[in-house]
Amino acid sequence: MKIESLSISNWRSIKRLDIAFQDLMIFIGQNNHGKSNVLSALLFFFGEIKPQDLDFNKGSQELFVEITFCDLDDTDKLTFKKYVTADGKIKVRKFAYVGGNFEYRGYIQNPVDDWLREANSSNYSKREVAQSLPFYPFLPASGRLSKQDIVDAQTKYIEQNIGTVALNFEIEETNFLGLKSVAKGIFGDIYFIPAVKDATDDFSSKEASAFGKLYSNIIESMSVNNPDWNETKIKLSSLFGTLNRLNKDGESNPNRPKELAAFERALGSELKTWGAEIDVEVLPPNIDDVFRANTQVWVNDGVRTDIRRKGHGLQRALTFALIKVISDSLKAEREKAAPEQNTTRTASASTYFILEEPELYLHPQAQRALFDSLVALSESKNQVVLCTHSSALIDVERYKSICIVKKDSDMIGTQICQCTDDIFTGDKKKDFNLSYWINPDRSELFFARKVLLVEGPTDKTLIPLLAKQLGVFRFDHTVVDCGSKDNIPLYCQLLNKFKIPYVAVYDKDHQTSKTPDGVASANKSSANIEAAIDQGTGASIVLVNDIEEEVGIVSGEKSKPYVALTHIASPGFKISDGLSAKVKSMYQ
Fold first, then answer.
1. Are 80 and 108 in contact (CB under 8 A)?
2. C-beta atoms surrounding 538 within 10 Å
3. Quick one: fold of 426-586?
4. What percent of the chain has pLDDT over 90?
5. How many CB atoms lie within 10 A of CB 549?
6. How far apart are CA 410 and CA 256, in angstroms?
7. Which of helix, strand or coil describes residue 579?
């Protein structure tokens, strides 16, 4: 199963958030705005961290994290049968209270009629009361009625009359699955990689570590399938059995070492007055635990050392390599597993990878390679959730995965902005995707305070330099080469959805050399840009014909960014008042 939506209330800087989930979720935003708080809320829900009083938003006595799961497999539907809705989803809320208590509650389709509600079942456990109710035929014919008998009868009645029973979808009054404490892992496996972490923690053989989880699976497989492993277990058990007073059949062991027998007698004689007898029993070790405890990971990159002696970059790369191996292993297990009809409650086979600033210690090319791996991981029936400050870990084409986290004030708390709509279809989608090859750094726009949308490479080259000459340049303003005038509306639509301020800078294109048809075409393109601009988010600045004409380049020397750059960098260049006002307005 997968997370479809996440709701958070009163968790740290978050007063209330509702987030729609994709298989890949990328949280971005400025420092101290709440990105990590979204991840920690997930970890709280899955039982990876315990809430502290400081986790409660100011003045709150109660908080909750609620998840709606979709894509349930048959095992999930059996385990969470009580909570599965008609559309095959479940919704679960985890509460926490100041002082340390917490609990899970699920949403159920609760009958409107009181006599069908499980919470009221104890009211009908007397037969003279129950016999007047419609579910009575589903009760045992004789004997004392228990609360469970009533619950079973209510359930059977609802199942057979599902079309006529009125139901409300509401949170249950009792504990989730009827358990006071939900077992960790019931919703699936969690692999969390925080921003700052000693890689040796990931590669220890403890079962809590990522390496330990995978290594334990390998050892379990060997225990079942490897005959040499099983023979060693038998021999080890036999060897340790020779040390004990009695053999496995409970009979006296004639092969026991005399030193142990003498040791027992000496101890016993000292305790004779107590009437106590000493029996030293030697238990054989669990060979699986022996191998776990005595395993260490070494890395040979020219010098063979343990992982803690390697650089942070290699440590980080090894951690992500381990995640990829885990993913491949889980995928292989799912593919080879024979379909069986499970009849018992089983933990979900879902896997969630949660990563905090995974780009740390990785150079730009390694970051881009990592992003490809994370995308592949999310496309292999896993969900990947990360927060990042790197544009290399963002793909504009995957805009539905992007969630901008912001906190404008403590009063409002952390808020998010995301877009799950289909912005581009048909040729528009193709044009937008192709523009990536014109400007592969366009993902940077999601981190900008303001975006300047321009037609081509000459505009992108000149405008920042002109801004520097005027003393108004700002690094938090990103210039995006849209590839053409007709692509600018596509970027406007994207920025409108994410409420990122922008200025569309485009050419009027009324050059004297243009035909009437050319001017009409330019006017149509200009009108499309103006129509796409959301006045609450964006604005436009029109250049007189084009940027080259604005800076005074003569006809015949156009279309080359280097020519234009050389021109405005020359000692005699003076920017016009009109262009100066436009550039200042862009960076205002």
1. no
2. 21
3. Rossmann fold (3.40.50)
4. 49
5. 17
6. 73
7. helix
Q: Judging by DSSP bridges, how do beta strands 351-356 and 189-193 pair with one another? A: parallel
Domain locations along the chain? 2-15+40-189, 201-336, 426-586
Long-range contacts from 142-151, C-beta under 8 angstroms, 24+ separation: 147/121, 147/122, 149/125, 150/121, 150/122, 150/124, 150/125, 151/118, 151/121
Question: For the residues 499-511, what does the mean pLDDT come to?
Answer: 93
Q: Is the pLDDT confidence value at 537 over 70?
A: yes
How do residues 14-46 score in pLDDT, each as one tens digit? 999 999 999 999 999 988 899 999 999 999 999
Rounded to two decimals, the pTM is 0.80
- DSSP notation for 372-427: HHHHHHHTTT-EEEEE-S-GGG--GGGGGGEEEEE-S-TTT--EEEE--S----HH
> pLDDT tens across 361-386, in order?
888 998 998 999 899 889 988 999 99
Q: What's the length of the chain?
A: 588
Q: What are residue 167's DSSP bridge partners?
A: 111
Single out the residue of 571, 537, 332 nearest to residue 453, CA to CA. Answer: 537
Distance CA 352, CA 382 (A): 6
